[in-house]
Write a structure and sequence with these properties.
With 483 residues, the protein is α+β, with helices and mostly antiparallel strands. The chain is built from 16 helices and 20 strands. A hairpin with a 5-residue loop joins strand 8 (150-156) and strand 9 (162-166). The structure holds flavin-adenine dinucleotide.
Length: 483
């Protein structure tokens, strides 16, 4: 597997760019096409067909692993299709081109009194990329995945044909393309609903938890009360404290609760601070780099847990939507703290496990990680529910997103641990999320999705893309298209 950065790859063939996953642990060389309109998307598909090569779709490149890269061939990056075509000020429905980012959408919607119904922990994904992965937010248990709020989408099929799909028209394509990781066509337009909000702030409650059981029970019993629930977990803590953490629960404000909504709904109120503890945001990753080793991260996690108890004692507080939703965007390029040379970076492993098996499975995964000497530097717990999309990662249960440092010396050992985590998760009836994955294989993919759903998806793929024009390193790794 190639994993070099542009800084270390001197002999890049003419016309090729190095395209890497967000976690930097995987990358590949490809010719990148950036169409400005639907016609240029069609031309790109035709070009790849003429040259008998493949084409990988890529949005903002925020998937951690190999979902939007492909070794050789073309990468099609429709990020210039970035116009918001219309916004219904009454219903909050937005009609956007596929390259519009979540950031652009919320900045357009919020001053009009609306907020996207589902956002990821970063605001930089495009809607095309977000739909292709069917992203979830901290409110997935309550509102489902992003696809559940899409009214219709335009898909340019590998043949060049443009199909408008919705629940009522081309329903199978609609339910397969959402969550279909860019295998069936290019999303060039989407009509998506946003939610009416009465303030630019949410009210946040912090709860410090002694162990994983307490976090799960506290969150479970408050699902009806809060719009958002998410827990940070200190993966370094072992023994009776295994899984200790800090839950953040948030609710939207009711009309009248915010005395000055015109002020909080303004984009300026949402802007993330320019400096953190006096250090310019752009430089914070350098400081984090000094702590990017097991003892440093153990210290940082312990400090966060201690501060969490103080946060809880202070009681509920208000925070802007952007600050609550996009905490990880506070520190630009924080991933660079993991190293920026060949085969470094991070992988995220995010097992989704049915509710009844979540506690024991996550505890086993945390214990395996500690025993193997690969403790996740960041661990995040969320509650989920099933959704109607064909290749869904959603289920009635929980996910634990685990960030592991990748280093050339320990990479093979880390992959062995990841494989043990895969076994534990699948044995519990769990799944993985293609946006985060870099480790599972075809047999694992076959086990995690219902056989009938996978078969229907593959049949559709063969029908709309008989030549296998759309392919990524991820699809080659987890899908068997030969059958
Ligand atoms: C810091 C961070 C936090 C995150 N938090 C969350 C989270 O809370 N919840 C969550 O669900 N995800 C989360 N993610 C993952 C992220 O939301 C997804 O990976 C998302 O798909 C990225 O969108 P993108 O535009 O960057 O697409 P890419 O990552 O470039 O591509 C994603 C997939 O979409 C396909 N694709 C791209 N554009 C199109 C298109 N126009 N038409 C069809 N297919 C296309 C690609 O082939 C690929 O399979 C996070 C990522 C980061 C880096």
């Amino acid at each position: 597997m190639k994993a070099r950065t542009p800084l270390t790859f001197p002999r890049l063939a003419r016309g090729y760019e190095y395209v890497e996953g967000w976690g930097m642990a995987h990358g590949a060389h490809a010719r990148v096409l950036r169409p400005r309109d639907v016609e240029a998307v069609r031309e790109a598909l035709a070009l790849a067909r003429r040259e008998r090569t493949t084409l990988a779709l890529r949005g903002g490149g925020n998937s951690y692993g190999d979902a939007s890269s492909a070794d050789r061939g073309y990468v099609l990056e429709p990020t210039r299709l970035d116009r918001i075509l219309s916004f219904d000020a009454h219903s909050g429905a937005a009609e956007c081109q596929g390259g519009v980012t979540i950031e652009a959408l919320w900045k357009h919607a919020l001053p009009r009194g609306f907020w996207p119904k589902v956002v990821s922990g970063t605001m930089y994904p495009t809607l095309g990329g977000a739909l292709a992965m069917n992203i979830h937010g901290k409110n997935q248990y309550a509102v489902g995945t992003i696809g559940e709020h899409v009214r219709e989408l335009d898909l340019v099929l590998p043949s060049g044909e443009l199909v408008t799909a919705s629940r009522g028209h081309e329903s199978e394509l609609f339910h397969a393309a959402i969550g279909g990781f860019g295998m069936l066509g290019v999303v060039t337009r989407v009509v998506i609903e946003t939610k009416r909000v009465h303030s630019g702030d949410v009210e946040v409650t912090a709860k410090s938890t002694r162990d994983l059981r307490e976090a799960l029970e506290w969150m479970e019993s408050r699902r009806a009360r809060y719009d958002y629930l998410v827990a940070w977990i200190d993966a370094f803590a072992g023994g009776a404290a295994s899984g200790r953490g800090l839950v953040h629960a948030a609710r939207h404000l009711a009309p009248g609760e915010d005395a000055a909504p015109e002020r909080t709904l303004a984009v300026a109120h949402q802007e993330l601070p320019r400096a953190i503890l006096g250090v310019s945001k752009g430089e914070v990753w350098r400081a984090l780099r000094l702590l990017n080793h097991a003892p440093g991260m153990r210290l940082l996690n312990a400090a966060k847990w201690t501060l969490g108890m103080h946060e809880e004692a202070q009681g509920p507080y208000r925070q802007s939507h952007a600050a609550f939703a996009f905490l990880l965007d506070y520190v630009p390029n924080w991933k660079w703290a993991y190293g920026r040379t060949e085969k470094r970076g991070l992988i995220q492993v995010q097992p989704f496990v049915p509710a009844a098996r979540a506690h024991d499975t996550f505890q086993a995964i945390l214990a395996e990680s500690r025993a193997a000497g690969h403790v996740p530097y960041l661990a995040v717990l969320k509650r989920h529910r099933p959704d109607p999309f064909l290749l869904t990662h959603g289920l009635d249960g929980w996910s634990l997103a685990l960030d592991y440092k990748v280093h050339p010396d320990t990479r093979a050992d880390l992959w062995r641990l990841a494989d043990r985590i895969t076994r534990l998760t699948l044995a519990a009836g769990g799944r993985f999320y293609p946006a985060k994955d870099l480790v599972i294989g075809r047999e694992d993919a076959r086990r995690m999705w219902p056989a009938q759903a996978l078969e229907r998806f593959l049949a559709l793929k063969r029908r709309v893309d008989p030549e296998g024009l759309l392919a990524t390193d991820l699809s080659r790794r987890i899908l068997d298209l030969s059958a």
